[in-house]
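Here is a typical sample entry:
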Amino acid sequence: MVSARTRNWILALLFLGWALGNLDRYVMNYAILAITEDLQLSASSTGLLLSSFFAGYALMQMPGGWLADRFGSRKVLIASVIMWSIFTALTGAAWSMASMILIRFLFGIGEGGFQPASSKIIAQAYPREERSRAMSVMLSSGAIVGLFVPILSAAMIKTVGWRTMFVIIGVIGAIIAFLYWRFIKLPKEETTSANPASTSANQKGSLALLFKTPLLWNLLIAYFSIYAVNWGLATWLPTYLVKVRGLDLVSLGWLQMIPGIATLVGVYASGYVLDKLPRGREKTLGSLACVLIGILLYLMFNASSVAIFITYQTIVTLFISFVIILLPSVVLKNLPASVTGTGMGIVNTGGQLAGFITPMAIGFIVEAFNGSFAAAFWMLIGFSVICIGALLTMNYEKGELLRGERTA
């Protein structure tokens, strides 16, 4: 285990990197309004474009986790940031829908290794009882970025244009990759065995045990469900509020800072609460949070004014934040550090598949219902119900299968 000073410095760098990754993902949700106009995209084409990143991101989750366990989390982390920075910059050079989809898909491949590798680093650097808070700090960068993205993206799109905006973000990524190479140092035991055949056999055995662990399947389903809600709202709410509720881009930016603040509060509070809860209690609270998410989604869609809509959205983000922090915390606290990267990659695949499927599905649904978002909201409510079932049926005792095998 590294010293407290070193691990907190590492966490600060992970925070910075995850902030940048979220910046690119979130600005796309606002840039898509200008991109749709420039490239003349229909609603279904827009949904496909929004989903293309998540196709690559989901595809890379399990390989990214395996690579982090096999070759070292630091190497995978640096390679991930370098690759996503290249394709972020290239987003500004896209000339057609096909080129944009390909670039965003490859960007997703690049970013796909970051969370499994960073989760493994947290498991290596932090004691078990501090891992939920460490994870919440890293993930909170997304909430902080979410506060400023609406205003920042509106300002940059109006001044330098969406193409230059993506080039600037790509350059910042290159700087962060250098900081990782220069300052993130991990214990030597992170590296795998000098015997390649032995290491390969151990990795295959661990992967087989992970797939036999019922807890991971529950987590994968829960990840898919809650991220279907999260990314369904994140990718389409700007379009919904502009086209259906009549907001302009600047007003939208200011109003979306309110749920952004709630997300930040929810992420930090969730990490603290989860580290204090008795084992098993978190799944009960997570299930209750999902019940409230479903109710609030219904109230959001039927809100009589923009002010009431934003109020319900602000509350729903608190409960979404709790579930999103809960799920990786279960992984970090119930799997040995040697397979945390692979385990996180497996369950996070569910979340990123949701990110691929949901925006695209909403695009087709909106087009099929002549611009109405009603069926899309009901779909998100359905996913909150599925998440309830996945959380309530989690069995930590069955999750001990892998830990017992690894420590035997």
